[in-house]
């Protein structure tokens, strides 16, 4: 890693940032639809459930790969220096928020993958499925491995669907709060402090 901090984000860093942002904007509402359409006997609603599942699960798996690559890139390419006029506590808080988001963006989809892996079967739906662009990843082809052993839905153990899915959901709530704080901070820099923090991530001249 270079000891000198650059003046702007690299184009790769910007691409990774906004790609992850778009993925989150799509997979979060898809996950909400997936959860709230589950078990509905209406065939049309069930088709919506399948589509939302495909979108949410596929983007979640892709997000894991994206975040891992982004962390690798970030460790090799330092972030641009923040405003020297900012108090030390704000500089530290900004870095803490950035690294917390990296952690949440990796942990949350991994928990989603683990939750699906943990299911031996889905009540009313038969064998567990995970969709990757229409491919049944837990099916005979075995494109996507289970990362925890499958057990019955209501198994009284830590690595069961109910406990893992609960952790997945609550971490998403916490991450949503931190992400909101991150966005508000960027807007504050752009519209109130009128500095180059947001412009650098947009690739605008500074």
Structural class: mainly alpha
Helicity range: 55-70%
Supply Rg: 20 Å
Low-confidence stretches: none
Order of helices and strands: HHHEEHH
Q: For the largest beta sheet, what order do the strands appear in spatially?
A: 1-2
Average pLDDT across residues?
86
State which percent range the strand residues make up.
under 5%
**Total helical elements:** 5
Number of strands: 2
Shape: elongated
The main β sheet shows up as: 2 strands, antiparallel
End-to-end Cα distance, whole Å, is 24 Å
Structure characterization notes:
There is one protein chain. The chain is mainly alpha-helical. 63% of the residues lie in helices and 2% in strands. It contains five helices and two strands. The chain has a two-stranded antiparallel sheet.
Summarize the structure.
The protein is 63% helix and 2% strand.
Annotate the secondary structure layout.
Blueprint: H1 11-37, H2 43-76, H3 88-117, E1 131-132, E2 135-136, H4 161-193, H5 197-202
Antiparallel strand pairs: 1-2
Essential attributes:
5 helices, mainly alpha, two-stranded antiparallel sheet, 206 residues
